[in-house]
Description:
10 copies of one chain form a homodecamer.
Chain A: E1 9-11, E2 20-32, E3 39-49, E4 55-57, H1 59-67, H2 76-91, E5 95-105, E6 108-117
Antiparallel strand pairs in A: 1-4, 2-3, 3-5, 5-6
Amino acid sequence: xxxxxxxxxxxxxxxxxxxxxxxxxxxxxxxxxxxxxxxxxxxxxxxxxxxxxxxxxxxxxxxxxxxxxxxxxxxxxxxxxxxxxxxxxxxxxxxxxxxxxxxxxxxxxxxxxxxxxxxxxxxxxx
Amino acid sequence: xxxxxxxxxxxxxxxxxxxxxxxxxxxxxxxxxxxxxxxxxxxxxxxxxxxxxxxxxxxxxxxxxxxxxxxxxxxxxxxxxxxxxxxxxxxxxxxxxxxxxxxxxxxxxxxxxxxxxxxxxxxxxx
Amino acid sequence: xxxxxxxxxxxxxxxxxxxxxxxxxxxxxxxxxxxxxxxxxxxxxxxxxxxxxxxxxxxxxxxxxxxxxxxxxxxxxxxxxxxxxxxxxxxxxxxxxxxxxxxxxxxxxxxxxxxxxxxxxxxxxx
Amino acid sequence: xxxxxxxxxxxxxxxxxxxxxxxxxxxxxxxxxxxxxxxxxxxxxxxxxxxxxxxxxxxxxxxxxxxxxxxxxxxxxxxxxxxxxxxxxxxxxxxxxxxxxxxxxxxxxxxxxxxxxxxxxxxxxx
Amino acid sequence: xxxxxxxxxxxxxxxxxxxxxxxxxxxxxxxxxxxxxxxxxxxxxxxxxxxxxxxxxxxxxxxxxxxxxxxxxxxxxxxxxxxxxxxxxxxxxxxxxxxxxxxxxxxxxxxxxxxxxxxxxxxxxx
Amino acid sequence: xxxxxxxxxxxxxxxxxxxxxxxxxxxxxxxxxxxxxxxxxxxxxxxxxxxxxxxxxxxxxxxxxxxxxxxxxxxxxxxxxxxxxxxxxxxxxxxxxxxxxxxxxxxxxxxxxxxxxxxxxxxxxx
Amino acid sequence: xxxxxxxxxxxxxxxxxxxxxxxxxxxxxxxxxxxxxxxxxxxxxxxxxxxxxxxxxxxxxxxxxxxxxxxxxxxxxxxxxxxxxxxxxxxxxxxxxxxxxxxxxxxxxxxxxxxxxxxxxxxxxx
Amino acid sequence: xxxxxxxxxxxxxxxxxxxxxxxxxxxxxxxxxxxxxxxxxxxxxxxxxxxxxxxxxxxxxxxxxxxxxxxxxxxxxxxxxxxxxxxxxxxxxxxxxxxxxxxxxxxxxxxxxxxxxxxxxxxxxx
Amino acid sequence: xxxxxxxxxxxxxxxxxxxxxxxxxxxxxxxxxxxxxxxxxxxxxxxxxxxxxxxxxxxxxxxxxxxxxxxxxxxxxxxxxxxxxxxxxxxxxxxxxxxxxxxxxxxxxxxxxxxxxxxxxxxxxx
Amino acid sequence: xxxxxxxxxxxxxxxxxxxxxxxxxxxxxxxxxxxxxxxxxxxxxxxxxxxxxxxxxxxxxxxxxxxxxxxxxxxxxxxxxxxxxxxxxxxxxxxxxxxxxxxxxxxxxxxxxxxxxxxxxxxxxx
Lengths: 126, 126, 126, 126, 126, 126, 126, 126, 126, 126
């Protein structure tokens, strides 16, 4: 089961010098199709701007959190909004995006994008 | 014949956390040229934002719907606007795009793009 | 000589559902350099939005029209604006772009872009 | 020495039909590092919109002009602004961009961009 | 230790002709993970517009400065904001961006972006 | 049904000057899965050396022959050996290869290779 | 646990016309590291020539067999030789290769190749 | 009409130091389909080893010779063997290959390879 | 200093089923130039066949061994032959190859290849 | 003028452990066309096996030697055989290859390959 207790944070670097945008791309995400039980494979892109005085998610803890979906039967759309919701709750960032990019099923590849907050125009539509 | 009875929907994930954009890319679309009867081959990209409290098209049903064009004599432009119209009627999404990308005929590749609703600027021109 | 009598049109699909953008890319364009008589090779991209109740250029007739430049001595810039002017006169579209992309001469590749009408920002600079 | 007498122009095509944007990319530019005397290699992209009733630079003369930097000791930044200034003076275009893209030195690749006039947003940041 | 005394500047070319944007991409950056002591590898992109009458960082001095991180235990985020702060202090540019792109750790690639000043929209989100 | 009556030949060019090897690659092959009825998509590569004084398959007739598999329920392996057998019977070439390359099913891509005659070592294992 | 009871076969096509070589590439293989318990991700390529009058592995059963490694703690080398041994026992092919290609761990990508029988020279070293 | 009088030669460099292999790749070849009159587009690769004390074809003359096919109605196979025969007669090389690679017609790309003399194994099958 | 005490081995899988070839590619190798002290960056490919009843190098220990070159002043050729000699002594494999691929210096990229034992022809020249 | 006095050597690593093959690829070679005086641009690949107890060419001296062709009017074939002869005389290697790869002139790219000694089959035809 997706396990948010695995997630850890650390203080974001002081943003006096201007905002920082952070992106982590995992090419090794797998969960199970809730209808057939077959594994789904995809990549997950997390992009966010930490809140002033806020926190960043620790990289290894993020990896372990993603691994906790391995035996979960869950739709593409729910993977995407669940990760979004968990990480927003964890970090309360200025804005955040989750993009999941799934290997083809029946000849159809899928990308799902979920956002939180005021994503600046230059990051939208990616 | 394009068969809309094949299409199924499921409730979109709650969008309290912010909007979701969904994209399905099929590289295995084929129909027939209405003039020559020869097969046309292309890819079809569907991109949309479900309406609040709305629905999503189910992936396998979408594949079967696309397959129902296999013996249809139909122009590129009509494929594109027909799929757009069918899926808009089915899902009544906030916005929706259909992009068809056809393999070359006579040395000319073609892309046709149809839209519905207020497509945000970051998704236009893709 | 560029022969506009080769060009044929058909009625654009009804645009009640929203606008349609059409793109045809020919990788097999050739004309002659008017100074040296040597052949030039390039690709021609046509992108346009049919006027409401307007027409579309028929694909095979477009190919024949492009072939009519084969023995023409004409500069890159003139190829581009000539095709633009001919197709605008033919279709009277809402907007239209012609982009020619020429193989290198003397180590220099060239791209020429001509437009007509109010090309939406997402299509400019392509 | 950069030799502007090599540059020739010809009248831009009439722009009644709408503006034209012209781009020439040379992958074969070389000059000398003014500090070490070692050769630098790069590409030069020229992009501009001729003024109404204005002129275009002739392609072969542009090639010869670029070749006149071959024995010149000159910094990346100066190459870029020098070419910009010379071509602006020559053509007095509506707007113009020069982008130089240099092969790595000490593991660092460099791109320098110089502009003149009101470059439309779709061409900026390229 | 990151050593700013290595950095040298030279006067920016006169910007009467219009602004200049400079980009240096180093694919050979390495530092140490402060938790495990293992080496991290990545690329660093510096992009900036010199202030009018301002200065540019000298390329070889930039390379030596980057090399001074080789034995430093430092997080991705801190590398990025440290380089930003040092170069802003050095050059006081109109605007500046630092983008670090790190090779995968535990199957996750990371990109960190820091900015200073009013970065024009065409450079944001790169 | 695969229809060999569609196939036409023409005399191979005289091979006094040395052997000729001919390759035709079709990226637009489709048949049906005999178990599920779903369409399969792939490419078919034909490579052969005409017999001395022999014949070549005519290109357009080959295209029509491939199209005759469109409604056929047939396994990958049988497509490959059937085409091999039909073309060997038609042309009696010195040697011949058929390579079919199928889009993924269930996350698995497949390539099937069938040969006839003494395929020279440089063409084997392709 | 790797479950060979999932594997099914069907008769190979008659090879009177000459040998057939079959290749199946799965990009969606995952198992667990036996030391750390962390998931490993890779692709598995199976290449073989069925014995005369022999059998082929059925594609869907192969997929299910691969999925049975999902919760198995097993080294790269053992995955490779285990699959080789299981499929050799199942099909008794003329020859067979297994190539596993693993995503990076600690900055190191790995490929393991195992063979059975007299693999022809054109297939070795792939 | 293919015009061999355009071809010029120059003495091959002395081969005391060991053999030389020369390759010229033209991406700008066009001729006409003898059945339909439509233009064909392709690339032509010439690879050869000059005979000891022999000659090389001059590059510009080769370009003009290729251009002389521009208005010729001729099949792919005949283009290939004609060029082979003409250049063998011209240069009498130790060995020679001609490979023509044609843009798709009806969804089928074609490559034709003709050889003369004892082409070493490392150059065959290219 | 290159530290062979970091290297660990484990027993190779039984090779009754036929030989196994193992390849590890590290894209994160760095050492120092012995003349200038500047860092060098490259990739190291290890490919080998374990001796019957022999051993394999453990992946994490290999990574630590490679890291021990980080502060070593050593030429490309010596890196390559040193790693070859150390790993041959450690594993006494049937055969072994080391290929180092170095990022450009002064515009020149370098690859160095060292071998041990009877490398089969299919692996040579890689 | 090509200046062999620039070339320096150092002793090859002891080859008790087996042969070493060295490759240096320069993407920044330029000379002049002896007919037109225009610059030619290409890459030069040097590949060789040092003789037992022999020498290697020093990398920086090789770069300076290549730079000495900058103002030389010389044909592609002569560049290739001249470099071959100079480096063979300098190093007396077991075998050596020079491959020059030239940017297009008149739409034709050229590759010239010269060899010395018994080049093993795995390196021929590269």
